[in-house]
Amino acid sequence: MDGAREHVTMPESSDNAKKSETDASKYDNNSHTTRFREKWKIGRPWLCCETAICADGHKFESMFCALCDKWSVGNNHVVWTKVGCTSIPLDVITRHEESTQHQSFVSAELNKSSQINAISRELDTKEAKALIDAQKVLYFLVQHNLPHTTLFKPLVDLCVELGATNLSYLKAKNAQYTSTRIVYEFMQCQADTVEEDVRQRVQNSEVYGLMMDEYTDVSSRKHLALVMKYVDKGAS
Questions:
Q1: Which of the 8 DSSP states describes residue 234?
Q2: What percent of the chain lies above the pLDDT cut of 90?
Q3: End-to-end Cα spacing for the chain
Q4: Fewest CB atoms within 10 Å of the CB: 84, 122, 129, 174?
Q5: How buried is residue 105: exposed, middle or buried, by Cβ count under 10 Å (0-12/13-18/19+)?
Q6: What is the DSSP letter of 82?
Q7: What is the pLDDT of residue 177?
Q8: Cross-strand partners of 211
Q9: C-alpha distances out from residue 195 to 133, 198, 226, 233, Å
Q10: What is the largest CA-CA distance in the chain?
Q11: Domain locations in the chain?
């Protein structure tokens, strides 16, 4: 028709089409080849992925390395730490994982972990020895009919002063194993140990006798006394 303009959409040139496709693939991480897979984290505890939004509204994913971020202080290594890696394919992760710098950071982390574990094991051993020695101190007081609740802490302090270094580990930063409550817990542990030993001996004995009697103390509390006699390896 005269005077009318027909709108015709011109086909996009091949160069422009390639550019548009490249720009789209830069942000289109929902495609099969560029989307981050959670299964890639298996065996890679250092790997993490974050999703961000550009100014034009496109979403994109960035991968970070926790080890490189931790150990690259003072280095010029920016990608994977301060700035995430936006190239998502798995082979990029593999190349980073096998890089010399990443391997050095892995070695540093393993060395630090081994040192911490060694210190922890050493502290656990010293504390265990301290608890065993504390039980010996308490057993000495009970065996000699001494007031254990009042003399336990002074006797422990005296032993430390005389060179019993193991007992010094009873006093940690957040706890001190010399209180009255701890003394009663130690006594209960010893009582349970003795009771279990006697029970095993009685069960293994072919002949035993049991006598029970009830009595009341000065505070009118009732108690049940048990006396047991058994044959242990041919001797009563």
A1: T
A2: 8
A3: 128
A4: 174
A5: buried
A6: T
A7: 80
A8: 227
A9: 21, 5, 12, 19
A10: 131
A11: 16-98, 107-230
